[in-house]
Structure prediction request, 222 residues.
Amino acid sequence: MTKTKKELPAFWKAYAASFKNGLSQDLSKVSLVVLDTETTGLNLKKDRILSIGALRIENGQILTKEAFELFLEQEKFNAQTVSIHGIRKTSAVQKIAELEGLKKVLTILENAILVAHHVGFDTGMLNTSLKRHGLPKLKNKTLDTSVLFHRSLPRSQQKANSHYTLDELAAFFNISTSDRHTALGDAYITAIAFWHIIGKLKPTSTKELLKKGRFFSWPISF
Prediction:
């Protein structure tokens, strides 16, 4: 008996359609979305996303007016990580269903390049969430600020690997960490660090930037 292929929802089709024309090699015409997730833990299979924060960058400008943050209903709770992100199961903040949250994220992302600190973790969590709802993986190209930062340093200052914490980047660029470990706060720190790093790397094309920011693997320390 042949299995009937599940019809993908309209919001996914609209997201997928945004990739039709590909990315411009002119960086001034490329949209980037800096994203961060706060989660119940670091296990891609067992843990869940609690909140998502994002900022858009266009033509070298961080569009703070388009910033967004959402909180997801908690089907899983881990009391041990509350001290990090401060998101409690019974907190008064408005929460939405996971699928509704994914819909909002895809609507904002479209075909933008996704930027995150240790991007493999954030995309891994999002892809696991998408899979739970019978949806394909993200289609976006990605950039990892940890890797970009590593490549912006003189060889004498580089670590043996490209794994730097967001706190290290914040300290290096003198960025306030008053909102650290909130999804939007971390996205904002990442966006400012990214802006500084690009100023050091001075990529001349989208292809060159993507090559420099390709992530290796995500580490345990954030």
The two ends are 48 Å apart (CA to CA). The longest helix spans residues 183-201. Residues 82-88, 218-222 have pLDDT under 50 and may be disordered. The CA atoms of residues 141 and 217 lie 15 Å apart.
